[in-house]
Design brief:
The protein is largely without helices or strands. It has no helices and no strands.
């Protein structure tokens, strides 16, 4: 975007290298954050919070 068109409403982009990390979260108006969630773009470990990948869970059962 041209700098003169920036009205301050866009979420700043994360460092492109940071997007390779597993703990990257997608934060936008389409993601409803939980109460108390500060909207961090990177998490040190997977949590399954809105905007992040769900952590790996082993499901019981056969087949």
């Amino acid at each position: 975007m041209r700098p003169d068109l920036d009205d301050g409403t866009l979420t700043p982009m994360a460092d492109p290298i940071s997007m390779l990390f597993f703990g990257y979260r997608h934060i936008s108006d389409a993601v409803l954050l939980e109460p108390g969630d500060e909207g961090e773009l990177l998490e040190p470990e997977p949590t399954g919070r809105p905007g992040s990948r769900a952590p790996h869970v082993v499901l019981p059962g056969s087949g």
